[in-house]
Amino acid sequence: MARSFDSGQRPLTNVPYESANNPYNSGAGFYNESSGFLPPQQRKKSGLSPWIKFGIPIVVIIIAAAVVGGVVGSRDHKSSTSSSGSSSSGPSNPSAAASSAVNNKEAIGVFPTATDSYGLPVYPTTANTAAFVAPTFVASATSAAWPSDTFTPSSPAPTSVRSDRPRLIAPKYKWDALPGLIANDPYLQEWNATIIGNATAYNQSSLVQYTVDGGLSLSGVLDVARQVKERLKAYAYAFRITGNKGWVDRAWDEILNASNNGSQPFSAGNDGDNWNSQHFLDVGEFTAGFAIAYDWLYDQWSDDQRNAIMWTMLNLGLNKGVQSYTNNTFHDFYGWWQDDVNGNWNCVCNSGLTLGALALLGDDPTGQAQQLLGFTIPNALANCVQGPSTDGTWSETANYWYFGTTGHSEMTSALMTATGSDYGMLHNNTAFNQTGLFHMYVTGMTSLFNYGDHGPNKYSTTADSLLFYGTQYNTPAYMLFQRDQRDAHSDPWAMFWYDPTVTGAFWDNLPLDHFFDDPVDQWASMRTSWTSNEGLYAAIKSGQLQKHQNHNDLDCGDFVLDAMGQRWAGELGSGDYDASGYFNGNAQDGTNGQRWLYYRKRTEGQNTIVVGEQNQLITAEPTIKHGSTGEVQDATTTYQVPSTSLAYFTTDMSSAYSTATSMKRGLRLLAGRKQVLLQDEMDTSAPIQWRMHTNATVTLNGATATLALGGQTMIVQILSPSSATFTTLNATRYADDPPLPPNQVDQPNPGVTVLAINLDAGQQTVQVLFNPQWPGSSSSDFVTPPSVSLDDWSLTSHNQS
To answer: Which of 161, 177, 595, 717 fits as disulfide partner to 585, beta carbons 3.0 to 4.6 Å?
Structure first.
């Protein structure tokens, strides 16, 4: 039911980015699979989208010793070639410049001037030396800083909590300081207006309905749980910032409804387990949402209301959590996520249970809250915290990073504010501080490098963990990057994880390229700029095809390509999560390998080489080599790479093919990063097909393909073999593919064309050159690269006199 308010809350509208009232920026209404955040009426089940439009991205990343601001990936792998690049000179007194910038935030305003059609920030092309300084936290800016927390226990314990409320993520001292910080910070002003606007939109909507997605044991009611969570957070925030008790009443309506005590049924015949332990993510998210409402509005609830919320949380949330850890039968069915699962399931479930337990400590007469904390913290340390691999890449996919890090940061922040310690959540995995860098580099110029599954609707799941990690890992560039992204505007966490003393340009001295070397991941990110979405971005991966929680594809050699504001080679994304065997990917074939029957998961559904119309082998163990001239962007938004700038990545992925004795692929940026060369060297016993999925309109002329997309043109040429020609195919399974499970179908991929090259079995070398038709460019701007064996690629291998 809608509540009436008199405090001037604004509905959602499309307004310019720079407006403090902006809810979604000018790109609102585009589905952005990296942030997944849309107005409620415009969301849809992402797993059933016809395809993740190449540009659909979001949004929101490392060599062990690398830090933001250092020259990462600046030399040939295993060589000592020094880096080079252009850079403007910085201010003569960086400390004074940073202090000036933070003290003039209101005059400077938010950095982006708009968002593009994909929801990514658009930066001004004029120099702003007053604002675009090196990333830093200005310790001397005390008027812009949060006050210190006086709760500093000498011997923190998970069951010993602060005496005041709220205790979860946003303690009272932060609420007390927040209005003054908002008044002087344009980012906080914008986010505050957006959150209040969202709460207003939710208030004008009907209560969340209990809609089961596929089945309680399939996708369950996860969307429902996350909608309830985002609403309760928004309502609780709106009350505490405005003092209008209508928001408390509206939160109570939603709580009654989600407790199955409202005017509409909130179950599917599963009374007593309405929060659905059959799909335990649902329990985690419901419990987290109720925990925030219980804690943030603690002093507003009557005794009866508080008891009602507590017993709902105990019966539908915490009790299920205790059972999942102590009841073997229950655990085997519903607690599997506790057993060596270093992905989002472990983070989300343990986080929600932890928030619920922390909220109820001191009130819970059953002892379950205290008992549960003895399970969730050590289990999260052993699993959730291990989500990033040694190079910072998230174990599942670029999109599942959002769910995993949101759960991790919520749990960690709540433990710190409620009990005074993180208990190792931040540091037990020494690579966790690099996962922010993974997210930054996996974000392209139209979208993420969105390999594998992109997951369900994100709702209140954002990349705001970067704000939290920015402070905790003393990496201001994380915070500066995320504050400009569209999903930073939507969630109350941003208001409390943001440090208003941060200042500077995240891109200043940030390397253009980064290579991720962990054998599980093995991928590269290469670009021309961090501040222009009209440049070039290329990413390519190899890596193992297991250890990704069954969210990966069979995709060694897969790549994406952005240029001139368009995605020319892109990803299809998720299949139908409710399809039979969709998550059975632990075997090559058979019942335990049914995942690999679906087109979007098969090798033919990727931008790579298919041999004999067969899938790649899940036992693949590729190797890689890479290099870069090591440019870092300067403080300007108009940075131009020098003509000598280049980067490359090669992989030997022979182990991924049963019908190839050798299979190697390399991607190289040429001509000052204006062109891209993709080269494959193969020796096979079955026919070969080179495949690339594109949204572009394709016109063929023998060995040349002209791609048109978004008013731009890309010319793609086959340089070798000389007899090869392009063909186009539908993005559908081969006629002789193994059949899908009974009564299952592949999802359609309308608007997608497969650009292909067919070759005979045997030894083949394929060189494909991508020539974006840059505005104002001429043929003299492009080069025809020499033919160099992939094993001989180096920084100088393609030099021509």
So the answer is: 595
